[in-house]
Amino acid sequence: MKVPITKVELDEREVEAAAAVLRSGWVMQGPQVEAFERAVAAYVGSRDAVAVSSGTAALHLALLALGVGAGDEVIVPSLSFIASANVVLYCGATPVFADVDPDTYNIDPAHVKRAMTSRTKAVMPVDQVGLPADLGPLMDLAREQGVPVVEDAACALGATYRGARVGSIAPVSCFSFHPRKVITTGEGGLITTDDVALAARVRSLRSHGASRSTFEREKGGGADVFADLGYNFRMTDLQAAIGVEQMKKLDGLIARRRALAERYNAAFAAVPALHLPTAPPDRTHIYQTYMVRVTPRARHSRDETVAALQALGIGAKAGVQAIHTEPLYRERAAGVSLPGTEQVAREGLILPLFPSMTEAEQAHVIDGVMATLGGR
Ligand SMILES: *Cc1c(COP(=O)(O)O)cnc(C)c1O
């Protein structure tokens, strides 16, 4: 049996929504994008939402709209997808890496505090693989310093922290709709915020810095005014129409992910070689990814485990990377030591998890893991 690491399934409603946009002839940014923005803002509980072309574009424009530029520092975890640090470089600023807690894989507020300097312009926690970062202490620290928290919530749409949904807590939160995320628009991203002036700046920056939207421009006369250097980071109506349908299914998709993760947790509870994902009681994990750690007590290293599972047809892979050890950052991060990050990067193992996973598929993964790492 072959079990892929992830699988995207779009049903007839998404196909029909996309077809309706194609039939209408209006495939660029327009009413579907606005509907998608309203749906996400209503779901998370934010005043505004701005859809863009990717999660990376969302983070990039959020930092630009907050005035991050040359000479500034942004504190980010090194344990993340490379884009989390790249967006800081796009702005001409310097990413300052903070360590993570090897239990939750999330950025450690005590380490963020030590990384603060007079040049810190923003703190950018990542909600790691679907578990919100410890936003309370992080926002307190940022407030003391007078800087915003820009939350990389790419993996965490629908997750909660102290009873509130991610996207309604930090001053700015950024989501991704890449096919690896909880819902998808093919490619896509979005920022949520209560700051309508900030949202307006992001709206302008996503469309060349123009004074009005594509929709307004196409509908009427008048002229554009370009005050700022912007980009073409627009989402299209074709993508947003799929997103509107995906939003209707979000709670069901999350419930399914959580049930599958709980089944893994129960099956692996007695395996001393594995460190299982943990969610502190004040937050919910939506398991965008199911990542365990293969501890030094295991019979096999993480890489040997990946190879053994792959040989059984199981789409396992190494976990989240440490950005500071990638060639692009090695020189920039010379002398940086992040023991928690390096441990998780060395031991992290991602197992298949997707909402349509069958009981037989999951049993095959569990059997493979037990055969490779079970016992003492
Ligand atoms: C996926 C992801 C991104 C980038 O999102 P894209 O939509 O692929 O550009 C950024 N940060 C994290 C933590 C991610 O998982």
Notes on the protein architecture:
The structure is a single chain. With 376 residues, the protein is of the alpha/beta class. The chain folds into 2 domains: 236 residues, Type I PLP-dependent aspartate aminotransferase-like (Major domain) (Aspartate Aminotransferase, domain 2), CATH 3.40.640; 124 residues, Alpha-Beta Complex (Aspartate Aminotransferase, domain 1), CATH 3.90.1150. Helix content is 40%, strand content 13%. It is built from 13 helices and 13 strands. The chain has a 4-stranded mixed β-sheet, sandwiched between helices. Strand 6 and strand 7 form a beta hairpin. Helix 1 packs antiparallel against helix 9, helix 2 packs parallel to helix 9 and helix 3 runs parallel beside helix 4. The longest helix is centred in the C-terminal third of the chain and has 32 residues. The protein is globular. The mean pLDDT is 96. Pyridoxal-5'-phosphate (PLP) binds next to helix 3 and helix 4.
